[in-house]
Design goal:
about 20% strand, about 350 residues, 7-stranded parallel beta sheet, alpha/beta, 2 domains, Rossmann fold, 13 strands
């Protein structure tokens, strides 16, 4: 029986793209009778306001074991996340040190999960498979452009190379990543398995697509509120331009939630609701009640390569989509998704025009 070690910082009942993608992979692996899967993940930590009970998510049977590594709570930010992951990595190394596996699978928007897999795999006598969901080096450069971080970026660039050179297989979730990785790692052949659509989102019925009549048009954003999304740079201005006939609902949390609240207060808009994250069953109800689904990536060059996983979920619902994206994501939407409109990131005037016209 082949033994597969799956490293993912997030795993259900934690919510988020990495969590759901890893769960789907594990379920696919278990369709083969000769595979044993050991998942090593953190305790649910993605959002402080979302603390699900583990309950049935704790699994330990003949084919699948899920081990939760206790996490260090932090206040967010680069330093806090770095400390938390360092403790996680040390505990993972201790847990896995006396085991044998045939394959180590590491899913990484966090570069260090890939690095952890690269460090572990030869010590466990295993081949390494990496699933790359983000270009961490470029993202750090874009989000933290100050000189202090330039030496840190060089360190991460070296670590990226260390991880990829040890990998037997590397998958990229976005074709937009290819130019970056092909130019840096010419000896590698990369596969492209993008995010997919879970059955529960395909599709809403015709009756559900027709939202109940009401006085306001309801625009819904569901997901992370961080640097990558840049909601604090678009939603308050957009709400002000749309006026009282429109209601924007933000269903999520993240590192830039405080900035979003400050921006809303500074403009004095009262047509934005900020709600805590919910599980996927409850999320479907919010989709059903929405008139428009909103997506946004911050105006940073690294995000021109990204194809957000949320886009697949939105498209599967059949609801109209308004997306502030550029680069590969914009091309993909124009070619593949009907009933959608795009606008340049952080351009509230263009976003309002797309809705009003």
């Amino acid at each position: 029986m082949k033994r597969v070690l799956v490293l993912s910082y997030y795993y259900p009942p934690d919510i988020g793209a990495g969590s759901f993608r890893t769960e789907a992979l594990v379920q696919s692996l278990l369709k083969s009778d000769d595979v044993y899967v050991q998942v090593v993940s953190s305790e649910p930590v993605r959002y402080s306001g979302y603390q699900p009970t583990l309950g049935d998510a704790e699994i330990n049977d003949a084919r699948l074991s899920v081990t939760r590594i206790p996490s260090v709570k932090h206040g967010g930010g680069f330093l806090g996340q770095s400390i938390s992951f360092s403790v996680f990595a040390w505990r993972v190394l201790k847990f896995c040190s006396k085991s044998h596996y045939d394959i180590v699978f590491a899913t990484s928007s966090r570069l260090m999960t890939a690095v952890l897999g690269a460090f572990l795999s030869p010590r466990l006598g295993a081949k390494l498979y990496l699933d790359i969901r983000d270009i961490f080096v470029e993202t750090v450069q874009g989000v933290y452009p100050c000189k202090v971080f330039q030496s840190i970026v060089k360190c991460f660039s070296w670590l990226e190379g260390f991880a990829l050179k040890r990998a037997e297989k590397v998958n990229l979730v976005s074709a937009g990543f290819l130019s970056y990785f092909n130019s840096r790692y010419r000896s590698h052949e990369f596969s492209l398995f993008t995010n997919g659509i879970d059955d529960m989102f395909v599709p809403l019925s015709v009756a559900e697509l027709q939202s109940s009549p009401r006085d306001k048009v309801r625009i819904l954003y569901a997901g992370n509120v961080g640097d990558g999304q840049g909601l604090h740079r678009i939603l308050p201005d957009l709400a002000a331009k749309l006026g009282a006939g429109y209601e924007i609902i933000v269903l999520g949390a993240g590192a830039r939630l405080a900035e979003l609240k400050e921006s809303i207060a500074a403009l004095g808009v009262d047509n934005i609701q900020l709600l805590a994250p919910v599980d996927r069953v409850q999320l479907l109800e919010y989709y059903r009640l929405a008139d428009v689904l909103f997506l946004h990536l911050n105006d940073i060059a690294a995000f021109e390569r990204v194809l957000p996983s949320k886009l697949f979920e939105y498209a599967a619902s059949g609801k109209p989509i308004l997306a502030g994206v550029s680069g590969y994501a914009a091309e993909f939407i124009l070619e593949e998704i009907s009933n959608s409109a795009i606008f340049p990131p952080c351009n509230a005037e263009a976003a309002a025009k797309a809705i009003l016209t």
